[in-house]
Amino acid sequence: MSLAIIDAREWQNTFDLKTGHKRQDNSPKTQMVKAVLGEHPFPGDIADKGNQWVTDTALDLVDRYDPNFVFLIYAQQYYSFRFEHPGEAKRQQLIDAVFEEVERFRDESGFFPVVVGTGDMIPVTEYIDLSRLDGLAITTHWLTRYAGLYGITPADMRYLRQLAGIERLVSKEEFMSLFSGEPVSADRLPEYLAVAKEGYCFRSTLLRQPLMIPACNHSIPVSGALGEINSITDISDGIDAILREKKVALILVEGVGTQDFRLPYTSCANGKGWYWYENSEAQYLTISTGKHQVFAYPPGYRSYQEDDENKEYPFSGYLTSIPSGTVGERFGGKSIAVGNRSMFMHTVTGTDIAIECFARNLANQGCLGVIHR
């Protein structure tokens, strides 16, 4: 039974991760996680020390818990790119700074780093407005390239096909055939998937609008001697192999791709065919499990249909369960995860302990620690 510890600076509370009910637990591991949370308040998604917080918290947890596997996500620069669109000098400064944090963790921990850039970002060319459709268009919080379409009329199809920003319209059957070997819950898939051209972004009336979005990242960079890495699905097996011999840190650097990666790297495919991953749970889970993960929570998924008072895992966003087969779950030794990407550290990594920012839409609500084992 997994525990969730919320640290809001003024107070700490412990909950059952699955039910959200309060729990009492004073075990040594719980006390250790509470101490780490208390020592490292989260500065904010786009605060100057956001990435420093990741390194400091991870090093503290390494010192206290002595793991053999660490999973880190550095995302401060991603939030800045997405919502602030800094000038080129500032952008390069942010990228330099995050790689300095990667180097600091490597030097002070002694772990062998495998660093993955999740993909380059570019300014928005134009927003695509789907509000005039007779049918239903669903855009998700962090995906800009894909929108799910339901109940689309012939008039809607004519309108969509003349929009300059639409690259293609993909039927449910075509989407499923692209990943024909992967498990799929067809009920969660949209009837059609609208795919935007590079630089175009589906507009939402409810969410904070991005200023920069992922480029057309058909490939992403991977550093570290992992052997032959042709696809994003090969990273996980490479990690497993190195873990037999040494301590490993898998480090994801958000919003940085082959254009600005600061380390020697190998390029690997970031998807399949016309479909490439944006930095979301699908990309993280594909890296972590070694299998394509497009159908569990597909683009255009109507998460509101499963979000009621009976939904389990209330601290895990739209995820309705903890995914299996992740790199931390497979590993038999001690493992931790730390990152300033809310919700994902405890869901996609499978580690014994995960610490993440507890933030929603840039609103800083503190930190979340999760103990799975």
Written account of the structure:
By secondary structure, this protein is of the alpha/beta class. It folds into 2 domains: 263 residues, no CATH class; 90 residues, 2-Layer Sandwich (Gyrase A, domain 2), CATH 3.30.1360.180. The longest helix is centred in the N-terminal third of the chain and has 22 residues. InterPro entries: Alkaline_phosphatase_core_sf.
Number of spatially distinct domains: 2
Q: Ends: how far apart?
A: 8 Å
Helix and strand content put the structural class at alpha/beta
Write the element-wise H/E pattern from the N-terminal end onward. EEHHEHHEEEEEHEHEEEEHEEEEHHEHEE
Strand content: 15-25%
Radius of gyration: 20 Å
Shape: globular
Question: Key features?
Answer:
20 strands; globular; eight-stranded mixed beta sheet; 10 helices; 2 domains; alpha/beta; four-stranded antiparallel beta sheet; Gyrase A, domain 2; 373 residues
